[in-house]
Each structure stands twice: as structure tokens, then as C-alpha cells.
Amino acid sequence: MSEPLDLGLRAQATAIAAGELDPGELLDAALARIEQRNPALNAVVETFPERSREMLAAAPEGPLRGVPLVIKDEWPLPWRAQRFGAAELMAPTAPGESGPYRALRDAGATIVGVGNMHELGAGSTGAISYYGAAHNPWNIERCPGGSSSGPAASVAGGLVAGAVGADGLGSVRFPAAYCGLTGLKPTFGRSAMEGHHMAALTSLIVSGPLCADAADCRLLASVLYGSELAAGDAAGLRIGVVRDAVSEDVTPEQAAACSGAIEALVAETGGELREIELPNLEAATLAAILIINSEDMSGATPEKLNRLSPELSPIARGTLKYRMLLPAAATAQAQRVRTLMRRRLAGLFADVDVIAWPTIPAPAPPLEAPLVELPSGTHSADQANVRGAALANLTGIPAISAPVGLSGDGLPLALQLQAAWGADELLLDAAEALERANGRRWVDAAPPVSAPTEA
Q1: Running DSSP on this structure, what letter comes out for residue 359?
Q2: Which of 161, 169, 221, 349 is the most exposed place for a label (fewest CB within 10 A)?
Q3: DSSP 45
Q4: d(Cα 376, Cα 359) in Å, to the nearest integer?
């Protein structure tokens, strides 16, 4: 028999509500499992048992009452300031009630720990952090994805059944893909963002859920959105596919897994497949990178940049200084590209319901050398990954990553679906249909470190 901590998010919440599971015992089990497994994963950078027990004691009868969760090191808590996985921040941070914290608290959830993250959120691999790299539960020598690396590794590693991340250029979807999870990037503006250091500045970053399957993501997303995301059936789904580097410059295993998943989704929903054109994807990626870097310049001065801590990685120091060199004309042009891509997507979504392509071009690379081998050659994982993720952040549309297979090395492969603004529910419906189509084979798959224990 599996342990209660091995149940999914909904199952834990249901069992607690029915009086079949003691939430105090579940919290103790989560803390014990973190102590047992986290040394190998480095997914959780801090626990606070007394604070967690205080949350549980005061928990209202909400949809997540008594369920332990992990929150990314990008969100302040009343007793802990966010660190962003970094030794030094350009702007000061302080403890506080962030939007995601309040959403979880009001839903009755218990925050059991803070999840590791890629330094300053500036990477798709999770290989760099002030706390040391997080590790992928499928193979601890591989990247867990970033920047929400710790939240994803926490769920995949069986420490908790759900976690809250943040997605600015794919930072929920990448770790979901690398760790074999379902990760939702909400429509911009729908999920809680209060308390984020860029809440008033960003036009790309959103909070988002990481869970084992789409129904669990629906529950956690409903809490973050502050309203229920109703379930549908995705019948007659019109799926658009793009023949571009984002879908074709990928490993053969990734291409085959995604192609098979799309065919299965068409069959399950009685839908249809349509080839579509989406020019200037490369320009859209560059535009998103320019915009997020320019928006994150608040508080930066030459004097501060010249006093950066040597504990920051050379990449972080270089990136922070690079931002000061961004010409205003380039950022203005990036906004024009954003407008162009929004108009193109508005036209496309009149003819298709979702756009499908691989979340990542290759499975998780080694932590010591985050490089991927693609048909076009050897690339850094960051360079290759962002091609498939940036469009959703640039334009504000929702996107979801779902597991669709394993590589020959036993590493997860993933499909990304994107939909029109506000169609987050449809993406969850489509992901659930995909799970039915493959018999939940991939969402129920567990890495060795988190395989349920038998009594």
C-alpha cells in the first residue's frame, strides 16, 4: 500500500476533508521525507516546521486544507524574504504576505518549505543557485529545469504533491518537462502576483502550478486564480502544428513522442490536425528576452553593478551588466514584435483551439554541462529551450506542458499546448484528454527516488 504522502493533490485534500487522513500526520510525513530525500535532490532550501504547524492550526476549511506544498524562492512569506537563489539582489527584499502565500493560506494549505531556483530566475536548467544546483529525481546528475527547479523536483521527488512556481520565459514549463510533471503557465494577469518584486513592472511573469497531472494543476491553479477553473471535455479539439525549428530541430525521440501524443489527442477528442504558419518565431523569442531584461533593470546603477558580490555567478554578473547596455530602440522594436505576434495569434485562434509543439527540444542535460545535441548541432540548453516557450510570455497567452514519454535514457519528454487568452480551462481539458488517450501512463510514471513504497 502506498503512503498518504504518495497520493496526488486532490486525493490528499479529499482524504483530509473526509476525515480519513490526519493533516498533522501528513505534515510530519512531508517533513520527514524532505529530511530523507532532499540531500540528494537539493529541491528545498529551507523548512520551518513551527511556522508550518502554525499555518495548519489556523487553516480554514478550504479546498487544500492541510495539504503540504512547496513555494518557489521567488515569493516572500511573512517570516522569510525571497532570495531568488542568489547571493545578492539588486533591490532589497523583505518578508511579507505575497499573493501566492495568501492564496494558499486562504485555501487551507500548509507551506512546508521553500523551493530552490535557478539563480535570479535567469536560466532554464536549474544548474546554478546560491544554494547549489537542484537535481532531477529521474537522474540526479541531470538538470531539473529552471527556473522553478526546486518546486518541480519537490513534486517529482515525492516530497509534496504540488508546488507553486513562476514563469517568465518558460520557468514553470521547463522544469515540468524535465521532471515529468504537468505545469501550467496562466494567461497573463489571471494568477496571484502581489508581493513579487516585479509585480508592478513585469508584462511577462506569472505564478503557476506544478503537479503530477492536469486535474491537480486545475485545483492548485484555481486557488492561485481565486476562482474555479471549470472542467470541460475538449471535444472536437482543433490542433495547430507549426513546421519550424521549434517543432523540427528536436531530438528524434522528442519528435516521435510529441507526434504520437498529438495523434492520440486528436483521436481522443474527435478533433482534427491543421498545419499552420507562424512566421517570425525567432524574432518573438528575441523580443521576449529584450523585454524581460529591460523590465528587470529597476534599481540598477553603474555603482551597484560595480559592487556586485563575487558570490554571484559570472553569468549572473555578466547578465546584470549587459542589461545596462540595452538600447532603448531595441526594446521599442521588441514591443512592435509583440503587437505583431498578438495579431497573428488572434487570427490563428479563429481557426485552431490549441497550438502544439515540444516543450523542450531534448530531455534533461547533465548538470555539469547543460548542452543538448540537436539536428542543427550542439546548443546550450538555455538557447534551445527558450525557442518554444517565449511566445506565450511575450503575448500573454496560456500554455501547459504535459509528459508524453521517456527517452532511451529514462528521462521525461514533454508536449506543450498553447491556447487563446483566457482559455486556460481548455488547456487543462486538453491535457486531461491526453492523459486518457495514453491511459495515464506518463502522469502516473514515477522516478526511482519517488516510487511509492509498498507495505
Answers
A1: S
A2: 349
A3: E
A4: 17
Report whether 214 contacts 182 (CB < 8 A).
yes
Q: Domain residues of the chain, as ranges? A: 4-291+314-450
Mean pLDDT score, 215-227: 98
Q: How far is it, in rounded angstroms, from Cα 156 to Cα 137? A: 6
**pLDDT on residue 289:** 95
Residue 384 CA from chain centroid, whole number: 17
- Three-state DSSP at 141 gives coil
Q: Quick one: pLDDT band at residue 405, thresholds 50, 70, 90?
A: very high
Q: Are 207 and 225 in contact (CB under 8 A)?
A: no
pLDDT reported for residue 90: 64
Rounded Cα distance between 346 and 23, Å, is 46
Specify whether the CB–CB gap between 116 and 125 falls below 8 A.
Answer: no
Can you read off the three cell numbers belonging to residue 239?
490542433
Predicted confidence (pLDDT) per residue in 229-250, tens digit: 999 999 999 999 999 999 999 9
Q: 51 near 9, Cβ under 8 Å?
A: no
The Cα–Cα gap between 119 and 126 comes to: 8
User: In 3-state terms, what secondary structure has residue 405?
Assistant: strand
Looking at CATH, the fold of the domain delimited by 4-291+314-450 is given as: Amidase signature (AS) enzymes (3.90.1300)
CA distances from 284 to 16, 287, 338 (A): 45, 5, 7
What values do phi and psi take at 135, rounded to 5?
A: -125, 150
Q: How far is residue 268 CA from its own chain's centroid?
A: 26
DSSP 164-221: EEEESSSTTHHHHHHHT-EEEEPPTTSS--TT-TTTTT-SS-EEEEEESSHHHHHHHH
The whole-number pLDDT of residue 394 equals 98
Measured distance CA(33)–CA(47) in Å, rounded? 12
Cα(352)–Cα(236) distance, rounded to whole angstroms?
A: 10
